[in-house]
Specification:
- This protein has 18 helices and 19 strands.
- With about 550 residues, the protein is an alpha/beta fold.
- The protein has a domain of about 230 residues: Metal-dependent hydrolases (TIM Barrel).
- It has a 9-stranded mixed sheet with strand order 3-2-1-4-14-15-16-18-17. Strands 10-11-12-13 form a 4-stranded parallel sheet. The chain has a 3-stranded parallel sheet with strand order 5-6-9, with no helix packed on it.
- The radius of gyration is 22 Å and the shape is globular.
C-alpha cells in the first residue's frame, strides 16, 4: 500500500449557499446559509447574517438556490456490474447460492463481466462509467473496484468517489469487504479478527431460507459468545429473525439493507423495523444494477415503498440517515463524514429547490435531474455548468446540461486518460462485440507467453491488472480470479462445457440514469418476485 493519503486535504476555498440539512446530532436545518470549505474540510456552517470565517472574506460563493445534504455513502455496491442492465429474474430463490447457476445469468451478467473486466481498453472504461454513474446520483463514497494482478496481488482503484477499503488516512479507517462466508469452525478466529478493530463488511444471511440463516448461526462461538462486534457490518441480513437481530444489535453489529435486490431475487427483505428496535445501525445500498436499483437515489424510493407497504415506523429522516450518518457510523467514519459540521470532510450534494416542505422528503423525491452539485473532498466534481470550472467535460442528464471535473492526481493514469464520452463509446462497442472479445481472451488464455499477458489491464509497477469480480459458484464458495500463474492471463473457464464465446451475444450498456432509460420502469415491472404491495407503491 502506498504511504500517501489517497485523498489529501487540498483544494479551493469557497462557500456553498442554500438550505443546509446538517444531519448533525440535533438534525439542525439551516433554512438559508453557507457551508464554508477550505482544503477539503468544512470550516464553518453559518446562517445568513453571520460573518464568514476569518480569511474567507471575498471568496467565491456558489449560490445554488437548492438544498445541501452530506454526500451519500453507499456501503454496498458491486460497482463494475453497474454497466449492465437489470436482469429479469427467472424464478424465486431462497439464498444467494442458487441464482448464479442459471444459464441466463451466465449469459447476461457473469459472462459479459468476465470479458469486459479482463480486456484492455474496457477495464478502464468500466471504471470510469460506473464511478460517474454513482457520482451523478450524489454518491461520494462507495465500495471500491478491486483490481487483481498477474503477480497475485490486489489493490483498489482510486477515482473520483471515495472507497471504504483503501484510504491511507487515519481519520478514515479502512474496511475489509472481500470476505467469504464464515464457517462454523472458523467463528472463533473470525471473532479474533473482529476484535482487532478493523471494520469488516460481510455478506451475511442473504436470502430468506434456512440455508441463508445458517450463515448467521455460523457466527456463534459458544452458548453465549458470538463473532459479532461493532466491527461487523452485515450486508443484507435478510434471513435474520427478530431474535437474531436482538443478538446482533446487543453486540454492536451494523447492517446494509438492499431492499430492491432482496425483493427481486427472494421476494422478501430484512426486517428493518426489528433491526432498528434492536439497536442495529442500518445503512442503505443498491447492491448492483443487475438485480438492484440503478443508484442510491432510486434505492431510497424503494426503501420508502417497502417501509410503507409493511407499515414500519420509518420516517423520511430515518431513510436519509441510512445514506449519510448511518453508514459513516457503521464504518467508524462519523467523526469525518456523514454530516455537515465544522471539521468534517467536505463531501456534499445539492438538490434543486429549497421549498418550505420537509427537506428529507425532498431528497427522497429527487431524481438525477434534481442533483445540481456534488463536491468530493472539497472539489466540485459534478453539477450544473455554472458551478464546475476548469477543464471539465460536458454531458446531459435527462436533457439538462451538466459538467464533470475529472482531473485528479491520485487516480490511475490509464483511467485518467479516459473521458466519460470515451467510456460510453468503448463500452457500447465492446458490448456489441462480446463474442469477438471472448474469443480473443480464449486465444490469449491458450498461450503461455508473457507477451500475450501484456494485453491485460492497467499497467503499474510492471504488473498487469484485471477487475476482480465477486462471482460465486453454486455452492456459495467465492471464486477468486485465477490468473493461472504469474505472467498468464486469467482463465475464463468453460461453462458447462461451453466457452464464453459460445454463449454470449450483444447486450446494451445500462443507461446512466433512471430518467434517461425508457425501458427501466418496464424492466422493473417485469420483476415477478416483488410483492404487489411494494410494486404498487413504486
Amino acid at each position: 500500500m502506498a504511504d500517501v493519503v489517497i485523498d489529501p486535504l487540498t483544494g479551493p476555498k469557497f462557500g456553498v449557499h442554500g438550505r443546509i440539512v446538517t444531519m448533525d446530532d440535533d438534525h439542525d436545518v439551516v433554512e438559508s446559509g453557507t457551508v464554508w470549505i477550505e482544503a477539503g474540510v468544512i470550516r464553518d456552517v453559518a446562517a445568513d447574517g453571520h460573518d464568514p470565517p476569518e480569511g474567507f472574506e471575498g471568496v467565491p460563493v456558489l449560490r445554488t438556490g437548492g438544498t445541501v445534504f452530506p454526500g451519500m455513502i453507499e456501503l454496498h455496491n458491486h460497482l463494475p456490474y453497474d454497466v449492465l442492465q437489470m436482469w429479469s429474474v427467472p424464478k424465486l430463490y431462497g439464498n444467494r447460492g442458487q441464482w448464479g447457476s442459471h444459464d441466463d445469468y451466465r449469459r447476461l451478467v457473469s459472462g459479459p463481466m468476465k470479458v469486459l473486466g479482463k480486456t484492455a481498453g474496457y477495464i478502464e472504461a468500466v471504471i470510469r462509467y460506473v464511478e460517474v454513474k454513482a457520482l451523478v446520483s450524489g454518491v461520494t463514497t462507495s465500495q471500491g473496484v478491486a483490481l487483481y494482478s498477474n503477480a497475485n496481488t490486489r489493490r483498489y482503484h482510486r477515482g473520483l468517489v471515495r472507497n471504504v477499503e483503501e484510504t491511507n488516512d487515519p481519520d478514515l479507517p479502512e474496511a475489509d469487504s472481500r470476505v467469504a462466508d464464515v464457517d462454523a469452525e472458523d467463528a472463533a478466529s473470525f471473532l479474533a479478527r473482529l476484535e482487532k478493530g478493523k471494520r469488516i463488511v460481510l455478506h451475511l444471511a442473504e436470502g430468506i431460507d434456512d440455508t441463508a440463516r445458517s450463515h448467521f448461526g455460523a457466527l456463534q462461538v459458544s452458548r453465549s459468545k458470538w463473532a459479532i462486534t461493532d466491527s461487523l457490518v452485515g450486508i443484507h441480513a435478510a434471513a435474520l429473525s427478530r431474535d437474531d437481530f436482538e443478538v446482533f444489535g446487543s453486540r454492536g453489529g451494523s447492517m446494509v439493507w438492499s431492499p430492491s435486490s432482496n425483493l427481486m431475487l427472494y421476494g422478501g427483505t430484512a426486517a428493518v423495523d426489528a433491526a432498528r428496535r434492536a439497536g442495529v445501525t442500518v445503512a442503505l445500498g443498491s447492491d448492483w444494477a443487475p438485480t438492484g436499483s440503478k443508484n442510491l437515489l432510486a434505492e431510497l424510493k424503494v426503501a420508502r415503498a417497502v417501509a410503507d407497504a409493511f407499515d414500519w415506523d420509518l420516517d423520511d429522516r430515518d431513510l436519509v440517515d441510512m445514506v449519510t450518518r448511518g453508514p459513516a457510523r457503521a464504518i467508524g467514519w462519523d467523526q469525518a463524514l456523514g454530516s455537515l459540521e465544522p471539521g468534517r470532510r467536505a463531501d456534499l450534494m445539492v438538490v434543486h429547490g429549497r421549498q418550505a416542505r420537509d427537506p428529507y422528503r425532498q431528497l427522497l423525491e429527487s431524481t438525477e435531474r434534481s442533483v445540481v452539485l456534488v463536491v468530493v473532498n472539497g472539489v466540485p466534481r459534478y453539477g450544473q455548468t455554472r458551478f464546475i470550472t476548469g477543464e471539465s467535460e460536458k454531458l446531459r442528464v435527462a436533457g439538462s446540461a451538466r459538467r464533470l471535473y475529472l482531473a485528479q492526481e491520485s487516480t490511475d493514469p490509464i483511467v485518467a486518460a479516459v473521458t466519460f464520452r470515451d467510456a460510453v463509446d468503448r463500452l457500447e462497442d465492446g458490448m456489441s462485440r462480446l463474442v469477438e472479445l471472448a474469443r480473443d481472451l480464449e486465444a490469449l488464455g491458450a498461450t503461455r507467453s508473457g507477451t500475450a499477458s501484456t494485453a491485460l489491464g492497467i499497467p503499474r509497477g510492471g504488473e498487469r491488472w484485471v477487475i476482480e469480480l465477486e462471482e460465486e459458484a453454486p455452492d456459495a464458495t467465492p471464486v477468486r480470479p485465477d490468473l493461472g500463474g504469474v505472467g498468464r492471463p486469467p482463465d475464463l473457464g468453460p461453462i458447462r462445457g461451453e466457452k464464453l464465446s459460445e454463449i454470449l451475444g450483444p447486450i446494451e450498456l445500462d443507461r446512466l440514469t433512471v430518467l434517461d432509460d425508457p425501458g427501466y420502469r418496464r424492466r422493473l415491472r417485469s420483476q415477478a418476485n416483488i410483492p404487489r404491495a411494494v410494486a404498487d407503491r413504486l
